[in-house]
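User: Could you go from structure to sequence for me? I need the amino acid at each position, not a summary. Structure tokens:
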């Protein structure tokens, strides 16, 4: 509800010109209620992926192999507000925000995957580099998936392709 309202407004008037109050009004909730659902307007776009990153953290903490945990992140991922944002970034005026927010997710994924790679025997440096590579592969796959028409191919296939391209799937 909120993410859809936000995307509509971003398309109509741009990201910067859209306020939290605008989104709340469009969604039919009080402005003060907005923050019960999301901390920022940008987080409305990233909520689905952030939940999956939390699940990645849980899986890795439980001892899952990094490659398996990263692959599971993409399983069943359906087109959402983030896919629309990547596909319509210019029209929504989101390019800078998407780059900043994507970088934060790359770092977060890398910081989750790196310790698991260390436990699997990688050196500290290799684990950091490979962890960041996993994060970059996921974000690149999501962007490509959105631009190719989210839902035309499973995101999991693009994540596997991105990991293979970077030589990461075996790790």
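Assistant: Here is the amino acid at each position, in order:
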């Amino acid at each position: 509800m909120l993410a859809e309202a936000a995307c509509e407004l971003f398309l109509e008037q741009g990201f910067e010109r859209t306020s939290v109050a605008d989104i709340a009004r469009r969604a039919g909730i009080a402005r003060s209620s907005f923050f019960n659902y999301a901390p920022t307007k940008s987080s409305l776009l990233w909520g689905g992926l952030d939940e999956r990153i939390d699940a990645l953290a849980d899986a890795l903490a439980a001892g899952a192999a990094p490659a398996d945990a990263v692959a599971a992140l993409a399983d069943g991922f359906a087109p959402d507000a983030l896919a629309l944002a990547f596909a319509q970034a210019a029209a929504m005026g989101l390019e800078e925000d998407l780059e900043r927010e994507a970088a934060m997710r790359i770092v977060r994924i890398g910081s989750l995957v790196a310790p698991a790679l260390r436990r699997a025997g990688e050196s500290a440096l290799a684990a950091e580099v490979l962890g960041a590579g996993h994060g970059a592969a996921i974000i690149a796959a999501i962007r490509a998936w959105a631009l190719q028409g989210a839902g035309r191919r499973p995101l999991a296939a693009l994540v596997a392709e991105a990991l293979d391209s970077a030589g990461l799937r075996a790790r």
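One structural detail worth keeping in mind: Residues 6 and 43 are 10 Å apart (CA to CA).
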